[in-house]
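so my prof wants the structure for this chain in the tokens format not the other one, which i didnt know existed until like an hour ago. anyway here's the sequence
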Amino acid sequence: MSLSRLSSNLMLAATICVASVIAAVPARAQSATEIQLSYKDKKFDPAEITAPANTPIVIKLKNLDAKAMEFESKTLKAEKVVAGSSDATKVARGALVVK
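here's what i got, hopefully its the right format
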């Protein structure tokens, strides 16, 4: 085998090796926007919340009423029932504006 052919084969092997290492490294995950939301007397606090589009959203719900409540967002395609006097967490993705 000639020196130039050996050099080409080594270069090809090195390229394949580097490409497979790069492909094996997972993509960096976007950091989630965390929103704290409480519910009491049929009202949310804060009354208005926002989050950036196309990012993970973690909504931490705290139901301060004795009765169960339902959180629903058609925009996020998210729904969660929270028992009375308890907490829940809902993970969603998308743009969020609740008024």
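also thought this was worth mentioning. Helices lie at 3-24.
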